[in-house]
Amino acid sequence: MTDITNILIVGVGGQGTILASRVLAGAVQMTGQDVKVSEIHGMAQRGGSVVTQVRYGKEVASPIIPEGEADIILAFEKLEALRWLPYLKKDGSILINDQRIDPMPVVVGAAQYPSDVLDIIKKERKEVFIINGLEKAVEAGNAKAVNVVLLGLLARCLKIDKQTWLDVIRETVPSKLLEVNLKAFEEGWNSFDR
Amino acid sequence: MKKLLTGNEAIARGAWEAGVVVCTAYPGTPSTEITENAAKYDEMYAEWSPNEKVALEVGLGAAIAGGRALVSMKHVGVNVAADPLFTLSYTGVNGGLVLVSADDPGMHSSQNEQDNRHFGRAAKIPVLEPANSQEAKDFTKLAFDISEMFDTPVMLRTTTRVAHSQSLVELADREEKGIKEYQKNPSKYVMIPANARHRHVVVEDRLIKLKNYAESTDLNRVEWNDTKIGVITSGVTYQYVKEILPEVSILKLGMTFPLPQKMIMDFADKVDQLYIVEELEPFIEEYVRSWGLDVHGKDTFPLIGELLPETIAAKMVQTLGDCSPRETAEPDQLQYEVPPRPPVLCPGCPHRGLFYVLNKLKVTVAGDIGCYTLGCLAPLKAIDTTICMGASIGTAIGMEKARGKDFARSLVAVIGDSTFIHSGITALVDVVYNKATTTTIILDNRITAMTGHQHNPTTGFTVKGEPTKEIDLVLLAKAVGVERVRVVDPFELEGLEKIVGEELAAEEPSVIITQRNCALIDKSRNNPYSVSPGACTGCLRCLKLGCPCIAKEGKKVRINLAQCVGCGLCATVCPSEAMRKEGSAND
Ligand code: SF4
Ligand code: SF4
């Protein structure tokens, strides 16, 4: 089962992680591979910590990724990147949207938001890529398109050709938002360099 | 054609392909999307029923009349539907009937973790457990055939991971089954004791036939491999075992009640060591032990919570060194504190103002199930109890009866509009009838919000989006016999506080309806608020609202402009008028 690619998309309920995972799964499907996606709904959608797991390859049995086996984590928020870091392989890559959203225990002063989240992550893993997704989304024309910016960034790390991504976005996104989302995808795609 | 579907979408598709004509449900995670998707097919009637008991009753009516019916609910919903279910097992069906029970190991969004295979056994009906979306679709179709073949309702049990995981599914066309002939048959369908006694014999007889079926159906199958270890498993756990223990032999049970005893004994015979890997209860294990077999089950794997692949690997290695599970990663022990991120009421949520007031008044609050349950968390901390759908009003009556009328002067029951219709209304009848003086607050946000915004009898629309008659909660409460009924806007904090005070003081039943659209369906987007740093004195009173857009910054606060929906509640509670509306949403 070593030919399986494991991707974890994490964030805060309401950030649009689900759309990102749907597009990713759609793109994989177009390449003819087996794919499984697992997401948790309900309570977690109300601003809680959310995680979607996408696994693909020749044949995938379990829909969930064992701890320590994710090849890539795409994090929509910094603290969530840290929370799910143990799921990332030692040599895996983590793509982080440089945004801070305080969880309620921090807001009410019952807990602290670690000030050095990105430093901690950089100490733990070598492949860390940080992006200001909000800024890029605004550049693309809508602050809400952060999820597609991040998707563009993720796409750059996978072996699926660009046209496939664009086709799936066309199918998934409502037509009046399409243009902004295509731009947002480009923003993400182009901001990858290392 | 192959399509990526969640287990829930696949079940809806399976029902359509199986020629189902009626789909009923009450929304509940992780089952909700079955009905949402079923409603998209024109060939099937679909409804959100007021509760699961009604959903099953409508389904059984359709089935007895000769049509195929799909009834879906979450695990705890089956508790509500249990009453008709146990007798439906006696009458049997005519057109097929499948009851989906979506269980939630790990309690991702549930108040308990019950294993509904027990219900199948107790009601004496077959239980099928799909392991992925393809099986979810195939088993649904097969379940209808089994239902008609054996004249029984069939339970299709899924778990969160099956319901909400997406995998590829081969689609097929719909097979029109038409409506079977209906014949009046009181000895089968009228369960007076004289008839029911005969039917119980039929049920036991059917169970024997089902046991034979279990031995020969493709639902149960063996995958031979190394015979040192044999694993019996079902549902999504099968997928974990397959991935983590590629070298063991597996008996995969697609039908977990009744069990194929002979098949299991044969399998046990051929392997050196027998393991039963099942999530939650030792359901299969107890049977297997009762047949005198020696197995590892709950002595090795946890009884509580979701069973994860890495747990299976770790536990197998602990008990048995040489089972060669696929190598799994050594988990990282992070040395850092990561603050939890519990769910919160959304920005602009209409419930926030009410809980702020209830917290301020320090009243005891009997709570219920819905978004508003989140009012129990800091900083609002305004809920004392949450038991099950519809329990709040009855709980409040009991508290009053135990502690007296004075206690009721600082006691309220809170319940959502959908929950009130689900099963709160009968308890409100009890308030009036048994002379309690309880104050009931119906949090009417015009939708069933928690499960993802489904319609209910108070919204004026059906699951297919057709307009329908809308229940008037004021008239309903009055009809039940409550004389004091008041409607308020939960954003008008002053008025709200005054009304709550007055109704608490009144020594008679009262109902307060707080009415305001759920923030996620409210179309009137306002400009966000921001904090004028000069005016903010750092009293932090606004933080008591628990609005996720307001955070402390230094000694003062700031508002996250991207998230704020401009509900203005923070401005209402700020004593220094530091919160002001922005000129435009974009600055
Ligand atoms: S979904 Fe609606 S009711 Fe639920 S927390 Fe959000 S705003 Fe409130
Ligand atoms: S106006 Fe105030 S209370 Fe309302 S959403 Fe914005 S910050 Fe929160």
Beta fraction of chain B: 15-25%
Mean pLDDT over all positions of chain B = 95
Cα-to-Cα separation, first versus last residue of chain B: 48 Å
Task: Note the total helix count of chain A.
Answer: 8
Name the features.
heterodimer, A: 194 residues, alpha/beta, 6-stranded mixed β-sheet, 8 helices, B: 587 residues, 7-stranded mixed β-sheet, 36% helix, 18% strand, globular, binds iron/sulfur cluster
Commentary on this structure:
The complex is a heterodimer of chains A (194) and B (587). Chain A has 194 residues and is an alpha/beta fold. Chain A is built from eight helices and six strands; from the N terminus they run E-H-E-E-E-H-E-H-H-E-H-H-H-H. In chain A, strands 2-3-1-4-5-6 form a six-stranded mixed β-sheet, with helices on both faces. In chain A, strand 4, helix 2 and strand 5 form a beta-alpha-beta unit. In chain A, helix 5 packs across helix 6 and helix 5 packs across helix 8. Chain B is an alpha/beta fold. Chain B is 36% helix and 18% strand. In chain B, helix 10 links the parallel strand 10 and strand 11. In chain B, helix 14 packs across helix 19. The model of chain B has no long low-confidence stretch (mean pLDDT 95). Strand 2 of chain A pairs antiparallel with strand 8 of chain B, so a sheet runs across the interface. The site of one iron/sulfur cluster has 10 residues of chain B, from loops.
Concise synopsis of the structure shown:
Chain A has 194 residues and is α/β, with parallel strands linked by helices. Chain A is built from 8 helices and 6 strands.
